[in-house]
Request: fold
Amino acid sequence: MARSILDKLESLDRRWIFLAIGLAVAFPIFIRFGLEPNVSPPVKAFYDTIEKLPPHSRVLCSFDFDPGAKAELLPMCVAVLRHIIEKGHKPVIFTLWSLAPSMVEEQCNAVCKREYGLKYGVDYVYLGFKEGREAVMVSMGRSMRDAFPNDFYGTPIAELPLMSDVENYSSFAVLVNISSGYPGTKEYVQYVEARFDIPLISGASAVSVPEYAAYYQSGQLEGLLTGMTGAAEYEKLIRRPDFGHIAMDGQTIGHLVIIAFILFGNLIYIINRRRKA
Amino acid sequence: MKREIPILITLIFGVFMIIQFFIPHPSINRIAGTLQEWAIVVISFSYVLGSANILRINGEIVYRRGPDWPYKLALVLAFLLMVSTGLFGGIQEGSFANDKLFKHIYVPMASTMYASLAFFIASAAFRAFRIRTWQAAVLAISAVLVMLGRIPIAQDIWSELPDVVEWIMNVPNAVAQRGILIGAALGAIATGLKVILGIERSYLGNE
Reply:
């Protein structure tokens, strides 16, 4: 009897695991813990890079992700945009992902126009999407107008006051890339950061970060945000708790449940092994 | 000649693009810029090619009432609807393509697909992190530490935990990632040289 239960537990039907995870992430919808994240050094480094920019700097933002990663990366984009705007800098935003343009546009308008009342073309610009991946990255290093002759709305960028004297990457104080894959941070490190001598800071989905940690450690990335946790940490730094903070409850319980399953699986495995020995 | 001319073109432009990286002269830059513009145009055409392929392959199956033809029909209709509304009504905020089709249909579906990963990861973790060997033990312990270190209560569990996680990411992880990156870069250089020198010809097709 005991043997049969142990065997069943060792190969637990995955639907029980799905149910446990479902309940774990749904729980904070009803009861909020209000957990505060600890700020990690790569997030602080990202924050400091924006803090130390000269006043009224132009900040180039490449938001490269699709709707699948929206829940994880959009809170990060919002927090970073708020920081850039509150410091008086001017974001120039674009995307290299074909599924992102309208999603990024909506968020740009929500933060820049509706939340802060910025004037389009003067305080911020949205260039939209350009196909070409690494070729576009390099093309912007030669001439911004060649890569993006018009903005998202079809206006020639030469007619936008914020863009009138922009030549290439040298016209920007820093490049912010928030990405969930290819093309994204890795390609900006390989094709842009050293070649065009522009400081690069990145936010990425949590699965990509182990790969980018090597770039952060070598100094090729001056700061690095990790998924939803990175967004929550950044919100804490700018003192604007938002969706990242809300999601921390679900993420915390979710992680704890996964850890509990790992420990439980190993406990059953060890008991079974001893019993069989 | 059918093979020699493409190989010659690849050789000339491949060698030029390598050389231009080391010669920052305006005239060289100008030519390289033009070539990159061409590359962008060619890449953009892959969308046209992809769209035509979707219509050709799926349209044929629907016409023949082949396997799963109702799904293929749904794909073709959804494709045509998305393309036509986007082309004629634009994709800006407030447009039908963005507000009705993209925001309210595509975005929730894509988010659902991505979110379902959490369930599969939990199930995989339960089965994969069994401590059968000492290497598996290192993997499982690292995974548990990093997962714990990424949540707000990490410091309450153990004050040194965030530092331990940073060490795992910056030392063992970075070392392994660098090895992989350097290996992949060397592989890419070797493949690039093989293509430029005409040794690797599979991109030309079988003809």
Observations:
- The CA atoms of residues 130 and 146 of chain B lie 17 Å apart.
- The two ends of chain B are 12 Å apart (CA to CA).
- Chain B touches chain A through 59 residues (CB under 8 Å).
